[in-house]
User: Fold this.
Amino acid sequence: MKSQNGVHRPVDLARAHGLSAQAVRNYEEAGVIPPARRTPSGYRVYTDDHASALAAYLGLLPGYGYPAAGEIMRAVLRDDLDAALAVIDAAHVQSRRDRDTVTAVAAALVTTPAPGRLPDRPVSVGVLAHRLDVTPATLRKWERAGILAPARSGSARVYSPDDVRDAELAHLLRRGGYLLGHIATVIEQVRAAGGPGPLAASIAQWRDRLTARGRAMLAGSARLSDYLDRRARTRATPPVGVTGGAAGSGEDQRG
Assistant:
């Protein structure tokens, strides 16, 4: 990266990451890197601190995504480390939930009733309740939670074979201790995939994506830790003032 005494042009920071100079300026305006000092002629003066902050932000993006990475960096730059860590914690909690969902789906698919075991016509709430050995009130509670979505025949609920399949999956997961909201997420995945068969084929890819995201979160956290260490060292040592203009000229520098 080109610099003179730790001073960088926008284009210098941009080239180091395959960005445009405008992207670097946009990140500054978004508050995810510190504000740049300006020369009397209006040129931005970036420092090694800006370069490190940009590297931290870009490192966070693959694992945490734009909204969370932005929240983290803005919190760090306003010296609210607790808020930054809260965003990181929330992202890891969500990652754990996603991983639990994959595990639950995979476990449920092992015991999903085969098509021949499902009824060949819609059944009433009483029939389904008896099949699962639960009360009709339990099925209505699952419906309110978004787990079941039976059709209506007049005022009566009518459960299709797919509804019965979903109810059996829900019953299995409930016995496994899963909360209703989590079960609703699993059932939604089954429906989106068009049933347990197509969903089973995507379990491996789903796990791979979670693993890649987890690795990216680790890498991003390491980049952020490096930046926090740098900020601490910089504050312990009075900075050398930057005077004069930055190297270069033109649109690669001007704000």
Q: What stands out?
A: The two ends are 20 Å apart (CA to CA). Residues 11 and 49 are 16 Å apart (CA to CA). The chain is about 65% helix and 5% strand.
